[in-house]
Amino acid sequence: MMRSLLIANRGEIACRIIRTARAMGMRTIAIYSDADAGALHVRVANEAVHIGPSPASESYLAADRIIAAAQQAGAEAIHPGYGFLAENAAFAERVAGAGLIWVGPHPDSILHMGAKDKAKQLMQQAGVPVVPGYLGEDQSPARLQAEASAIGYPVLIKAVAGGGGKGMRQVETSAAFADALIACRHEAMSSFGDDRVIIEKHIACARHIEVQVFGDHHGNVVHLFERDCSLQRRHQKVIEEAPAPGMDEATRAWLCATAVQAAKAIGYVGAGTIEFIADTSAGLRADRIWFMEMNTRLQVEHPVTEAITGVDLVAWQLRVAAGEELPLRQDQLSINGWAIEGRIYAEDPRNDFLPSTGKMEIFHPGYGFMRFDAGYEAGDTIPPYYDPLIGKVIAHQRDREAAIENFASQLEDALIVPVKTNIGLLVRILRHEAFIHGMIDTGFIARHLDDLVPGAFPHPDALSRGVERLLPPDMDEDNGTRGLMGFRLNAPPQEEVVLWVDGVAKSVRLDRAGLVDYHALTTDISTTDLWLIDQGQPYRVSTRANSETAMIVENGNIVAPMPGRIITIHVAVNEPVIQGQKLITLEAMKMAHSLVAPFDGIVTACNVVTGMQVDAGASLISISVLP
Fold first, then answer.
1. By the 8 A CB rule, do 445 and 349 touch?
2. Residue 550 domain-assigned?
3. Are residues 334 and 403 in the same domain?
4. Coil, strand or helix: which one is 232?
5. To 10 degrees, the CA torsion angle through 579, 580, 583, 588?
6. Partners of residue 518 on adjacent β-strands
7. What is the model's pTM?
8. What angle do CA 17, 21, 26 make, to 5 degrees?
9. Which of 201, 224, 239 is the last residue of a domain?
10. Helices (H), ranges, 412-556
11. Which one of 23, 66, 312, 444 is most buried, counting C-beta atoms within 10 A?
């Protein structure tokens, strides 16, 4: 067994790998960029090496610097985690060439299975069913669009080297194809250094089901059952569970055997995931399940598999990399209970899921979870340069119903502020009747979005429960009431009180049973006295306003919603635009975000140029209403 390990990653996965490696007696070495100098993974490692500036291209994707850091620190092995260089065959070869142990599959496996086109061709040869699509070498826009039309819309454009939803777009019509292709290629090049794509038929009523496989250098390959990862937003997984809802034993046996067959076909070694797409319009059936791709690394959602099998997959990775056999045979592995994982992202569902950055002054992910894998603690700052994943919460119970209830009831009390998160969205998913009854597919979140995104104002019952904590302590001994801007607890129904909720003044009517009505008054910003949580969504509530006001943006002045880089300016000064027309594409946190015209008008000013780095709140472009 190796004695020292460098983790070529950051955030929650680096912390998670460090935890197991240290428990196995290894010296752990972290790497960090300028932005991560004080990050949690740096603090929990035995030592850390600085590798460069904040942008990933100059730090976490800089192979030379990472290998030099490993040599400088005297590391024996490198674990890549997931993302960044985890599925980069050239990097794996260079690690081995430097005399270091690569904790991952053979570079040939990464090369063959990391490219979606080659992976599907290999699987077809191995007798594994694959999704219909175009895998050709001709990458001209005209050929790709022609193939999409031949396949039939809707289709998926997918980056050949992609993963995590990056470099992927669902396209509904031929007219939308060109723009989607440009966006996919840009994201793919930015994230993976490869802008090639494939075209796939979009499967209706699709379930995303994957099988965890594991191989060693002695020819042993096992599966650790399936995970359902159908709850996605823009192809980014949000909630995962194991086992898959509605999976019967016969279908499970076929699916897992097919996954092992796929892994054996390429002599796979280490942790890997065979991903399948299922058309569930007629139920979950083996004849309607196809191979989609293989991830030649540890998955973000691996904790749910660990929960139901009792296996530490990182420990298995380290043992296999050291030349040991798999610790367990297939007949020694079984499913125990049900596990659900929710990914907490620094993003704002109420603002089109834009990423959120800044300091987390309060960091309380809830109570009672079996496990919380996080890359941050209270006081840490979310930087704008990397994936917005804060951490993952995992509930493990005897069955799915108990796991859902445990997860939802605990997450309802979570509070991470003032950074925006998707916790309120997660709670609403878990409480949704369709989810509870297993009526899930990859379109679930988009289909139910209006029910899942928290409102601008908390539910009256939640707000009424919070009002008591805001009332001043002065009591009227004669009638037992307290004054609050005219509000009296024992007064007749329909008394009004003014509260500031997230900086917006509201007139709130209350009766003895609580709040019954409310409406907006103004847009003043206040100092807050209370964080009120309604189904996991935090609201800042105050009984007073002060002189501090937020910057009010005049209509038509488009500002940057977050720090980022201008990658495309779609309009010019004096050009007329219509409501919803794309104005600027901003790259932030490894994703492309489109800023659109709020109304019909004419462009009067443009304050940025392509390639420019901008701060949150920076004025980008101005529009005036047409006379």
1. no
2. no
3. yes
4. strand
5. 150
6. 508
7. 0.80
8. 145
9. 201
10. 423-431, 433-436, 444-447, 449-452, 460-470
11. 66
Angle at 552 between CA 595 and CA 462, to 5 degrees: 90
Mean of the per-residue pLDDT values of the chain: 87
Given a contact cutoff of 8 angstroms between Cβ atoms, the answer to whether 387 and 11 are in contact is yes
Last residue of some domain: 152, 172, 201? 201
Phi, psi (degrees; rounded to nearest 5) at 549: -130, 150
pLDDT at residue 113 tops 70? yes
Task: Residue 73: give the domain boundaries.
Answer: 4-103
3-state secondary structure at position 400: helix
Beta bridge partners of 181: none
Measured between alpha carbons, how far apart are the two ends of the chain, in Å? 75
Query: What's 93's DSSP letter?
Result: H
CA dihedral angle for residue 495, residue 496, residue 502, residue 503, rounded to 10 degrees: -160
CB 106 within 8 A of CB 248: no
Distance CA 203, CA 291 (A): 12
- The residue-averaged pLDDT of 52-73 equals 97
Report the amino acid identity of residue 195.
D
Contacts of 577 (CB under 8 A, 6+ apart): 571, 583, 597, 600, 601, 602, 603, 623
Same-domain status, 149 and 235:
no
Q: Which of 65, 196, 252, 297 is catalytic?
A: 297
User: Do 343 and 414 fall into the same domain?
Assistant: yes
Query: Strand 47-52 vs strand 27-33: parallel, antiparallel, or unpaired?
Result: parallel
In a domain, 41, yes or no: yes
Domain count within the chain? 5
CATH number at residue 562: 2.40.50.100
- Exposed, middle or buried: residue 238 (CB in 10 Å: 0-12, 13-18, 19+)? buried
Residue 542: strand, helix, or coil? strand
Q: For the segment 319-339, what is each residue's pLDDT rounded down to a tens digit?
A: 999 999 999 999 999 999 999
Full DSSP string of 433-461: HHHHTT---TTHHHHTHHHHSPPSS--HH
579 and 538, same structural domain? no
Both 464 and 442 in one domain: the answer is no
Instruction: Give yes or no: 297 in active site.
Output: yes
Residue 350 contacts residue 376 (beta carbons within 8 Å): no
Give yes or no: residues 224 and 150 share one domain.
no
Q: In whole angstroms, how large is the CA radius of gyration of the chain? A: 26
The answer to the question of residue 428 being in a domain is yes
Rounded CA-CA distance 607/605 in Å is 6
Question: Looking at the chain, how many residues does it have?
Answer: 627
Residue 472 has pLDDT above 60, yes or no: no
> With bands split at pLDDT 50, 70 and 90, how would you rate the model's confidence at 464?
low
Task: Give the per-residue SS3 of 15-71.
Answer: HHHHHHHHHCCCEEEEEEEHHHCCCHHHHHCCEEEEEECCCHHHCCCCHHHHHHHHH
Same domain, yes or no: 342 and 196: no
Give mean pLDDT, residues 152-163: 87
Q: What is the mean pLDDT of the segment spanning 297-318?
A: 98
**Is residue 336 located within the same domain as residue 366?**
yes
- Write the DSSP symbol of residue 325: P
Residue 115, domain member (yes or no): no
